[in-house]
Amino acid sequence: MLETKNLSKHYYNGYRQIIALDKVSLSFEKGKVYGVVGHNGAGKTTLIKLLCGLVFPTYGFVYINKKSLYPKNFELLSNIGAILEGSRNIFWNLTPLQNVKYFSMLRGLSYKNILPVAKSYFEIFELEDKLNTPVRNLSQGMKQKLAIIVSLLHNPEILLLDEPTLGLDPNSSYSMQKLIRDIAVTQKKLVIITSHQLNLIEKLSDELVLLSKGSVCYFGSIKNFVTKKSEQVYILTVTSSDGKTFNKEILKYKPKLERIGGEIFATIRIPESDLDQVLTHLVYRNTKILNIEKQNSSLEEVFLKEVAK
Amino acid sequence: MKITGIILAEGYRELMYFKRYSFERLSSTIMLVFIFLGFVYSSADFSTGAIRYDTNAIAHKAVGFLVWFFALDAVGHLSSAIREDMHIGILEQIALSPYPLIYNLYGRSISRFFINLSIATVMFLLFSVFFDLHIKFGFSAFVIFLLTYAGLYGMGLAFAGLTLVFKRLGPVTTIVRFFLLIFTGAVIPLSVFPEFLQKFSQFIPMTTGLAIMKAMIFENVSFFSIVSEKGFLYFILNTAVYLLLGIITFSFFEKEARKNGALGTY
Fold first, then answer.
1. B29-33: long-range contacts at Cβ-Cβ below 8 A with a sequence spacing of 24 or more?
2. Which among A203, B116, B224, B242 could bridge B154 via Cys, Cβ 3.0 to 4.6 Å?
3. How far is the alpha carbon of A77 from chain B, nearest alpha carbon, in Å?
4. Chain B residue with the nearest C-alpha to that of A46
5. Assessment of whether the complete model's pTM goes beyond 0.90
6. Which of B16, B24, B93, B110 to mutate to test the interface with A (most CBs of A within 10 A)?
7. Closest-CA residue in chain B for A10?
8. Sign of dihedral through CA atoms A112, A114, A116, A118?
9. Cβ-based neighbours of B207, under 8 Å, separated by 6 or more
10. Do A53 and B258 touch (CB under 8 A)?
11. A4-30 per-residue burial string, b: 16 or more CB within 10 A, e: under 16
């Protein structure tokens, strides 16, 4: 559906070359949500802009349905809808309906035919009573919702969303997430999202693209990434009346300690590699083990660890 | 079909903007009327203690001024429109359309032309009533005017293209706009300027077009006798070169802006 081959973008600041994206080869499929993550300057926005023709690559290719977008095949852009971070995406001086009218005409669609589609989206996003309010008077969340509606008007096969939930309240963010999943799974579209909210990416995406300094560090299933890269930890809940049990051997894991009556209750987070040693210590000290729970790291934890590398 | 859509969309946006900012447009039109009155009264004769002016000279000035009114917009509006779109951050979303940005500019210009035509008509009527002018603006003169406008529009496209990369060109377009007012024979006869300036002025698309229009309006020269003259061929070539250069310059700088990722920056 959408493919990149050796996609690279270099900028020049005087004689200094800045590599924004370096030989990125990826293959995206319909019906899935792809999350693109990376720290600031990793190349996320550059990748999104290269995928939709807003920035020309230094070299490399973008294929949409096996046809190359570059150098001059811009009619393929009718397959793409995009929300760009830092851009306005919609006209604040016009009303939502006027925006719909403008963008439908811009994409060669009949406003009359598009209006019922737009109205159904307005209903989903609870904007139906704001149709004739100038956008400048809407909240940030409403503006973002309208931007999404406008990007969907021409029924694109590919939706590129750069920080789509930025500035949204929890309710709006939830309805947005639901809609994004629905677009990908039910409507069988390809959705590519970038976000700094890693919990959102983890919840929404099927596949992950991890970028660092313009290069792809990981591309594949999020589950695999988290399982493969995360160190499994065990949460132990123990109790002992002997204060000496929690000596430096245990304190190095920074346990949460609580004294209830004569008993000390502790919750300790232990890496898998240290589990045997810690259990031996606790059993030797006659500690009562109340619970052992295996826990995987979150995407955020793994990401922070990987970025630190 | 889609290109028509882009033109319609931009026309619609221009109309909405006109509606929203009609007060600004009204005040700038009043300002232009004052500039025109300044030109008229500064050349009037006050020696007898009363105002005496040459109606024929005012009629020449009125035609020149109204053509300049269109030039003002043709040269600078596209550049300021692009700058505004970049400034508010909507240009990238517009540039996601499957067609080059130049089609959006065509749409804006067509719509803007009709808005200006209605404003110019009001100004023309005001001038005619106020100074008792009897100007017959025939169809042939209108054709020459359209060709003149096309050449000026080429200049506007070039400035719009430069704006994509260099961002702020306001002062440059303002200089060109006032140059067009003073040195093309719009309100001041070309003959009063040094010869080199007169020759240079011939390279500007407005100078020849305006001279032909004035000949048609005030000297009743027919369209066919104009067409058969060498000067007309030069006028057509001049217009075509400006328009073509404008299109090429805009397309070149659009490509440059996309190469440098400059569409989204201001």
1. B29/B119, B29/B122, B29/B123, B32/B69, B32/B72, B32/B123, B33/B123, B33/B126
2. B242
3. 5
4. B261
5. no
6. B93
7. B260
8. negative
9. B184, B185, B190, B201
10. yes
11. beebbbeeeeeeeeebbbbebebebee
Reply yes or no on whether the pLDDT at A309 is more than 70: no
Q: What is the pLDDT of residue A97?
A: 93
Burial code of B179-208, b = ≥16 C-beta within 10 A, e = fewer? ebbebbbbbbebeebeeeeeeebeebbbbb
Q: How far is B111 from chain A (nearest CA, A)?
A: 14
CB B184 within 8 A of CB B207: yes
Question: Residues 248..277 of A with a Cβ closer than 8 Å to B: which?
Answer: none
Residues 119-138 of A with CB under 8 A from B: none
Residue A295: helix, strand or coil by DSSP?
strand
Using CA coordinates, name the residue in chain A closest to B256: A56
Among chain A residues, CA nearest to B255 = A56
Question: What average pLDDT score do residues B35-50 get?
Answer: 77
Q: What is the ipTM of this complex?
A: 0.79
Contact A106 B1 (CB under 8 A): no
How does residue A26 score in pLDDT terms, banded at 50, 70 and 90? very high
How sure is the predictor about A169, in pLDDT bands with cuts at 50, 70 and 90? Answer: confident
- When the pLDDT of each residue in chain B is averaged and rounded to a whole number, the result is 87
